[in-house]
Design brief:
This protein is of the alpha+beta class. It is built from 5 helices and 7 strands; from the N terminus they run H-H-E-E-H-E-E-E-E-E-H-H. The chain has one domain: Nuclear Transport Factor 2, Chain: A (Roll), CATH 3.10.450.50. Strands 1, 2, 3, 4, 5, 6 and 7 form a 7-stranded mixed sheet that branches.
Length: about 140
């Protein structure tokens, strides 16, 4: 049986260094990625994911994505963490989130993320980090 949490950790390691190919090597060709918390339609396929990741990689100077808690049962991993990064123009962005990953043959085939999109939008526009978000970041990495 595959150790899916280790696959997720490899995805995180790749994204921290903005290695898009390293992220995509862990995705199933038939990937369904709900990356907007339900705000927008799901993305389908690795190339759709590549386009989004390339857009983010262009603005990110340093990534600090990390997990706080996770659980793995069968082919499913539940996770809680923060997508935190610094942009090339000096903004500090941190989005607490929860997500569910479903695996098939050791690859992520379905990825659902849940977060408050307004936090992302506001911080990208230069809003300061709220005390609530800052408190959520002050947790040990799992």
């Amino acid at each position: 049986m595959a150790d899916n949490i280790e696959t997720l950790r490899s995805v995180i390691k790749s994204w921290r260094s903005l290695d898009i190919d390293g992220v995509l090597e862990h995705m199933h060709d038939d990937l369904i990625w709900n990356n907007s918390g339900g705000l927008q339609p799901a993305l389908r396929g690795k190339e759709a994911m590549r386009e989004v990741l390339e857009g983010f990689a262009a603005i990110i100077k340093e990534g600090r994505w990390r997990l706080f808690d996770w659980a793995e049962v069968g082919n499913t991993v539940w996770m809680e963490g923060v997508e935190e990064f610094f942009t090339h123009d000096g903004k500090h962005v941190a989005i607490p989130y929860a997500g569910i990953l479903e695996f098939q043959d050791g690859l992520i085939v379905n990825w659902r993320e849940y977060f408050e999109g307004r936090i992302l939008e506001d911080m990208l526009e230069g809003a300061p980090m709220s005390q609530e978000v800052a408190a959520m970041l002050d947790r040990p990495e799992a």
